[in-house]
Every structure is written in C-alpha cells, then in structure tokens.
Structure to design on (778 residues):
C-alpha cells in the first residue's frame, strides 16, 4: 500500500466540499435566427437565400491545445501567431463535431473568420459562423454536439439561441448530445408572409415566367384587325384583356402548383422546364405571326398549367413545413399573384400610353417579341440538351 | 496583463477582438511542454491511445491527472481522468482499482452516494484497499454519518501509518463532542512522529488548527496554521481555512497578503473579495465582478458544486439574504460539514428565517459539536428576534 497514496487520499479528504478552484471545460455557442430578405441571390437561382442563421462559437485555447496542440514551440505560452497558424485545423476539428439541421435539412457551416475573446478561465478562439440552411426561416432547429466528447466527458457546450426576439439556453454534454429546438411559436401569419414573400421573389427572378406573361400582355393594348395590329381604343378594353389573361394564367398555375405540391401529380423537371421555355417561344412568336389572337386567355390557361409545375419544384426546394402545408401553398401562390400584379400594374399604363407610337409597335412589340423568342429558344435548347449557355 | 483582462472581461459575451501582434501571448498553459510532469502525462496519454483498454496505463494516467487537481485545483483534469477510464466508466463491475478511481472522480462532483457504492464494493472485494477506506471515511464525514466514519477509520488505522490512524479518529472526535481530547491527540501524534511526511503533517496540522479555532483558542490556532504554512506545500484548502480564520479574527489585511495573486482559484478569490470588502480596498469591485462572472459560468453549465461559496458571496457581497439562504439550503442537502452548517446558519439569520436553520441546529445538537462560532450563531437564531 502506498502511504503516499493514502496520504494523498486523506489530503483529498480536505477537498471534499471545497469546490473546484478553476473551471471545468466549456464552449460557448451562440446562434441567431433572424428574418432576412431573400434578396441577395443571383437571378435565376431557384433556391431562396438561406442566410437567416448566423453564429459564433467560443472554444478555449487550452482545450484546443489539449486536443490538437497549439503551442508549437512548446514554451507553455500560446501566442496569436501560433493560433493563427492553426486556424484551418481548428475550424475543421470543431466543425467535424457539430451538426445543425433546420426543419430536417442539413445546414452548411463555414468559418470565415476567427478572433479571440476572454472568459473567466482564459483565452478562447472565437469562430464566426456562416451558416447556410437553404430555405425560408426554419421552425425547428436540431443540433448535434460532440466537441471533446472523447477527451473530456466533463466538457459542456453552452448554447445561447435567439430567435424572433426570444432567447433560450441549453447545455450539451455526453448525456444530451442531440437537442431540438422549436423556434418561437412561429405565428401562422409570419409563416404565411414568409412564403408569400418567396412567391413574390420567385416570380421576379423567374424570367421565363415573366417573359411568358409579358408576351401575352404586349398585345393587350393592341387589337388584331384585318391582319394587322392596331392600337386599342379604350383602356377598359385593354384592362379587361389583361385581367382575363392574368386570371387565366393564375388559375391554371395555381391548380398545377397545388397538385404537384400535394404530390398528386409529378412530372420530370427537365420536361417541365423545357415545356416552359417552349411556351415562351410560342407566345412570343404568336405576337409576330399571330395564330391565336382571339382567345389569349385560353393560351394563358393552357400554358399556365405547365408553369405551375415549374413553381412547384421551387416550392419543394424551399421546403414545406409539414404542419402548415396549405398555409405555405396559399401564401406562396398569393405571393406569385402579387408579384405578377405588380409587374402588370407597372407595364399596363405605360404600354397603353405608348401603344400608338412606332416605338411600341415596331420596337417593343415586334422587336421585343422576337428577342423574347430568341432568348426562350436558347433556353429551350439548353434545357432539352441539358447544357448551360447563358448565365441566367 | 492576462489576469487583468480576465478580471475586466466579466460577462460571457464580451467583445471578440483580433490581436494586433503575432507575439501576443493569449494563454499560459499549466506547464511548459518540456516539464517532466507534462512529459509524463503526454507519454502516458500516447501509451493509452495505443492501447485504450490497458487498465494499468489508464489508472496511472488517471491518477496523474488527479494529482494535478489536488495540487492546482484545476477541474479540467477530472474530465481528462474520466476520459482515460472511459472503457470502464459504465461497467457495473470494473477492476477494483479502477473502481476506486471512479469513486474518487465522482465524489469530486459531489456524487457521494454513487462514490460510496463503488468504494464499498471495492473494500468488499479487497479489504486491503486502504485508499478506499480513507475515502469512505471522508465521505461519511461530509454526510455527517459519524458511526460509519469511525468504522472506516478503524480500517484505515489498520492499514496506514500510526499518525494517519490517530488523525483519522481525532478528526471525528473533534466534531462529535470530544474536541479538547482530539486536539490533544493530534498534538501528541505530531510530537511522537517527527518523521511523518510533510503531506501527513500538513493534514494533521490543518485538522488541529480548525479544532483549536472551534474551541475558541485563536492564539493556538494561529500558531498551528503558521506551522502548516511553513511546510511550503501549496494547499488550497489550508489557505482557504486560514483566510477564514483571519477574516473571523478581523485581520483582513493579512488575507490580502496570504492570498496575493491567487485569484485563479474561485475559493481563494472569494476570501480575497471578502477581505477587500472589509478593507474597502481598490480591487474590491473587480474581484466581486469576477466572482459573479464565475458563478454565472457555473450556473450556465448546470454546475451546483459551489453553492456554499456562492451563498457566502451572495450574502456578504450582494446582500441578497433570500438567495443566499436558498443556496445554503441546497448545499446543506448534500454536504453537512461544520462549514456547511455555518453557511446555513448565517444565511438563515440574515434572512430572518430561523426555521430554515433547523436542519443545522438539529445536527449541532446530535453531534455535540463544540464550536464557538456555531454556538454564537445558534444563540442568535434562537434568541429574541429583532
């Protein structure tokens, strides 16, 4: 029996009831879920911006030194230079031990920058987190935390999560590695608004849809009489025409959007995209060599059905909240309508005012239609042939 | 500089910054890489990594880590020690020595009952496990189970040096109504065994000083504490105990000298802050804020092992008697040593809630402890309320 051991044991008797002098190992993880405009996407990108999450993760230098070694020269002091040299390794080590899911979708985390901060027990590296969870603001977050689990079971991850003005905290340890957080009772209204906003955005970045609509609207201020286009007499006529076209288009794509979203019908996306491009070509060419000049609303309806499938794939990419499917659908749809109406509201008065001018009749109408047809033709070729020629 | 930054930083979410120079020292590690202690730990760690189920290596490493905790009071080493024992941690029947180590680590986070289960199983399996008996005695003392503590001490006495055996028994006698005899026995043991190791002497002297203090013999207690300090062993418990004695004796200036630069330890920072308050010293606010931040950090991670210290802090430095009482009560549910009783009595008194002090008063009656300070507090509690 080692007396020294026994002595040590009895000495340690003295330590019972006396608390730790320093501090066990903690890391501090701060996540912020905020509402951000889905407005910083490149045009044509089908996915909404997922930059609603940001965060910061403070990890003790002491712990990182124990795990991967930071004190390069072994002098017992960790300098900024030594830390900087290991930034990539630190980020890789940490990110390999943290996963984040938003509404079931895995998020991508990157560390664009590291700084330093001091907590009660020493210096920490501050990992600024750039988090990309594609889709609208999530209603549920799942975190899986495994940092230092194999090296120090007493290590704890202290989470500070702020979403919608509410802050909550949680502790991650070996006993609770994976935790879920329902973000502040997402009000039905704000969810609705979210999806409506996505709808508006997607019609505005949906050039093919806009050009199709435009192709049908360009002749709205004109009438085909005796094999020629002449200016419409009264605004009310044009207005009614536009109303019929837009309504028909809307009704049609609402139907197929709903059917596709609810899983009733499913069409291969390449076919849908190609058909959409074809519809734009036809609608545009129809302005130059009119085949359908009477029942444009019918054209809008038929092709609208196809466009609806295009919207459905966008909506699917955004991710639908299982508990608010209809809400999301209606919201998105209304958003699309709203976006369309905005475009029409801008277009119609201008077009009507200019309808008699040569500028409108030759350049905008014919020239514009040909350009649209050309553009759509390229899209058609791209989508059928599955290659990319244009950046949008 | 670092210390200053630590003191000033305070809140958990202070501002991150980018250091200006590559040579800025951000963190000073416990030791240099070349230090023999560090090298030993690294070698053991590497050996264990090659063969994680080698119990001998695992135990050596765990014990090495635990020695660091004992020396410096740095609890990260508890986590490392636990990781070293990972293959056996959840086992119902690990090897005896692993079992004892597991108990030692658990008692550190106040999992006393779980630790006792392991220790008893260890001594059932191998009655020669002196370490296990010693720890049992210690835990029984914390839980105020004196008959069980005595029994464990008998086993310790049979296995350890005579001075340790005497000290074990005397430690119990000192708080069960035989304080004067215990003090005499401890002094006799010291005199009779001048060849005892410094660690053993330290332990005996600390117990003696505490007993003399409780008996109301401050002169003797002071001399004994100084004798213990003269052994030149850095011991957080001794420093805390002597600091408390000095504070009681209204000698706060000496506390500042005694604990100079020892702010890293929460225990000692508390005493420094109390002394600074008594003196209205300039560091008072900084230390107080730092302590508050540390208790907050512990609260964030759900760590409830500091409640006695937090109770004292909240009462003396924040004046929140109600909260201090809640903390002291929560602490007393787990630990029932004289210092724990004192924290409860003080909090109950400040909160004008004598009923809350009942458990401590009952313990005082049943243990027959002789303590000038405790009796004074009890008297005030039972006396006419203001």
């Amino acid at each position: 029996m080692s007396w020294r051991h026994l002595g040590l044991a009895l000495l340690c008797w003295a330590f019972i009831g006396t608390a730790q002098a320093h501090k066990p190992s903690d890391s501090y993880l701060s996540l912020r879920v905020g509402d951000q405009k889905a407005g910083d996407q490149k045009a044509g990108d089908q996915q909404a911006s997922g930059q609603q999450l940001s965060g910061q993760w403070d990890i003790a230098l002491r712990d990182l030194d124990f795990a991967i070694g930071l004190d390069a020269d072994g002098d017992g002091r960790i300098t900024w230079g030594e830390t900087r040299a290991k930034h990539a390794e630190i980020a890789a080590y940490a990110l390999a031990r943290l996963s984040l899911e938003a509404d079931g979708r895995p998020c991508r985390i990157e560390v664009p920058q590291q700084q330093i901060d001091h907590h009660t027990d020493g210096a920490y590296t501050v990992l600024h987190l750039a988090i990309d969870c594609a889709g609208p603001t999530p209603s549920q977050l799942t975190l899986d935390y495994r940092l230092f689990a194999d090296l120090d079971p007493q290590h704890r991850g202290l989470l500070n999560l702020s979403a919608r003005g509410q802050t909550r905290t949680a502790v991650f340890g070996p006993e609770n590695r994976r935790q879920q957080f329902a973000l502040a009772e997402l009000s039905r209204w704000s969810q609705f608004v979210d999806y409506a906003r996505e709808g508006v955005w997607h019609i505005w970045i949906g050039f093919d849809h806009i050009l199709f609509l435009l192709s049908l609207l360009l002749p709205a201020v004109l009438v085909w009489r005796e094999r020629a286009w002449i200016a419409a007499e009264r605004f009310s006529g044009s207005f009614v025409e536009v109303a019929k076209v837009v309504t028909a288009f809307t009704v049609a794509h609402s139907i197929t959007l709903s059917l596709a979203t609810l899983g009733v019908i499913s069409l291969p996306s390449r076919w849908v995209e190609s058909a959409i491009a074809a519809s734009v070509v036809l609608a545009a060419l129809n302005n130059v060599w009119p085949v359908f000049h009477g029942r444009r609303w019918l054209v809008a309806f038929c092709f609208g059905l196809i466009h609806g499938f295009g919207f459905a794939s966008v909506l699917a990419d955004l991710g639908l909240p299982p508990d608010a499917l209809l809400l999301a659908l209606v919201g998105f749809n209304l958003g699309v309508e709203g976006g369309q109406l905005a475009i029409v509201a801008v277009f119609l008065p201008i077009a009507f005012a200019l309808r008699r001018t040569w500028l409108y009749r030759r350049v905008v109408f014919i020239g514009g239609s040909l350009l649209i047809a050309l553009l759509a033709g390229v899209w058609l070729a791209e989508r059928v042939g599955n290659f990319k020629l244009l950046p949008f | 500089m670092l210390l200053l930054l630590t003191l000033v930083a305070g809140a958990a979410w202070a501002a991150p910054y980018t250091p200006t120079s590559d040579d800025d020292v951000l963190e000073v590690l416990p030791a240099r890489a070349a230090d023999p202690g560090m090298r030993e730990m690294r070698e053991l760690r590497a050996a264990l990594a090659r063969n994680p189920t080698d119990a001998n290596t695992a135990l050596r490493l765990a014990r090495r880590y635990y020695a660091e905790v004992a020396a410096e009071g740095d609890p990260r080493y508890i986590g490392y020690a636990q990781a070293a024992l990972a293959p056996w941690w959840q086992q119902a029947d690990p090897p005896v020595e692993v079992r004892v180590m597991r108990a030692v680590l658990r008692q550190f986070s106040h999992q006393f009952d779980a630790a006792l289960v392991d220790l008893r199983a260890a001594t059932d399996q191998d009655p020669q496990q002196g370490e296990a008996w010693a720890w049992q005695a210690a835990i029984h003392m914390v839980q105020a189970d004196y008959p069980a503590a005595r029994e464990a001490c008998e086993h310790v006495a049979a296995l350890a040096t005579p001075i340790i055996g005497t000290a074990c028994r005397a430690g119990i006698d000192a708080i069960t109504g035989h304080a004067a005899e215990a003090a005499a026995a401890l002094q006799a043991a010291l005199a009779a065994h001048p060849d005892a190791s410094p660690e053993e002497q330290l332990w005996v002297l600390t117990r003696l000083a505490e007993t003399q203090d409780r008996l109301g013999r401050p002169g003797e207690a002071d001399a004994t504490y100084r004798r213990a300090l003269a052994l030149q062993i850095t011991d957080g418990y001794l420093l805390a105990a002597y600091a408390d004695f000095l504070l009681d004796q209204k000698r706060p200036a000496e506390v500042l000298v005694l604990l100079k630069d020892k702010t890293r330890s929460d225990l000692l920072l508390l005493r420094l802050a109390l002394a600074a308050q008594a003196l209205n010293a300039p560091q008072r606010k900084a230390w107080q804020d730092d302590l508050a931040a540390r208790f907050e950090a512990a609260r964030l991670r759900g760590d409830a092992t500091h409640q006695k210290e937090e109770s004292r802090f909240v009462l003396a430095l924040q004046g929140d008697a109600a909260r201090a009482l809640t903390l002291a009560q929560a602490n007393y549910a787990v630990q029932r040593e004289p210092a724990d009783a004192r924290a409860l009595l003080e909090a109950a008194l400040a909160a004008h809630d004598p009923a809350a002090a009942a458990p401590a008063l009952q313990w005082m009656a049943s243990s027959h402890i002789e303590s000038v300070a405790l009796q004074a507090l009890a008297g005030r509690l039972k006396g006419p309320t203001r």
Observations:
- The CA atoms of residues 259 and 278 of chain A lie 22 Å apart.
- Residues 1-9, 11-21, 36-50 of chain A have pLDDT under 50 and may be disordered.
- Chain A touches chain B through 66 residues (CB under 8 Å).
- DSSP finds eleven helices and 13 strands in chain A.
